[in-house]
TrEMBL record:
Belongs to the small heat shock protein (HSP20) family. This is Hsp20 family protein. It comes from the Bacteria. Signal peptide: none annotated. It comes from Kaistia nematophila. InterPro entries: A-crystallin/Hsp20_dom (IPR002068), ACD_IbpA/B (IPR037913), HSP20-like_chaperone (IPR008978). The keyword Secreted does not apply.
């Protein structure tokens, strides 16, 4: 017994849907084919990242990228080739459809994607809003300076 059914908890909680979906994903539910297609995640700058996926045999029209609610979804659907009848003696290049999901941190946005030499590159940037950036607060001393008020003698 390696999986847990969390569906009874969905009915009695409000606002924890993302937490439960993360638990489902970590436990391997809805994982599909693990490890396909292979990918790398690299840091290209202080707030810049790149996901590189090996999608050999897929054209740009057969790939789709969608970013929704802190989830990046990359789908590949191989279209059947019309008019080409051939007998494959050995299949070493996987041509199966796939769907790979990545959980993005808050304020991470997709800046672009490119396909070159069978590698799909998805560029990500973390843009923190100005109101959430750390700021320095000036410290004043706690001593109050007393001001002497001059009064006229009557």
């Amino acid at each position: 017994m390696r999986t847990f059914d969390l569906s009874p908890l969905y009915r009695s909680t409000v606002g924890f849907d993302r937490l439960f979906s993360l638990l489902d994903q970590a436990s391997g539910v809805d994982a599909g084919v693990p490890g396909y297609p292979p990918y790398n995640i690299e840091r290209t700058g202080e707030n810049a990242y790149r996901i590189t996926m090996a999608v050999a045999g897929f054209g740009d029209s057969e790939l789709s990228i969608e970013s929704r609610e802190n989830t990046l979804t990359v789908k590949g659907e191989k279209k059947p080739e019309d008019g080409k009848e051939s007998e494959v003696l050995y299949r070493g290049i996987a041509g199966r459809s796939f769907e790979r999901r990545f959980q993005l941190a808050d304020h991470v946005e997709v800046k672009g994607a490119s396909l070159e030499n069978g590698l799909l590159h998805v560029d990500l940037v973390r843009e923190i809003p100005e109101a959430m950036k750390p700021r320095t607060i000036a410290i004043t001393s706690g001593k109050k300076t007393s001001q002497q008020i001059e009064a006229k003698a009557a």
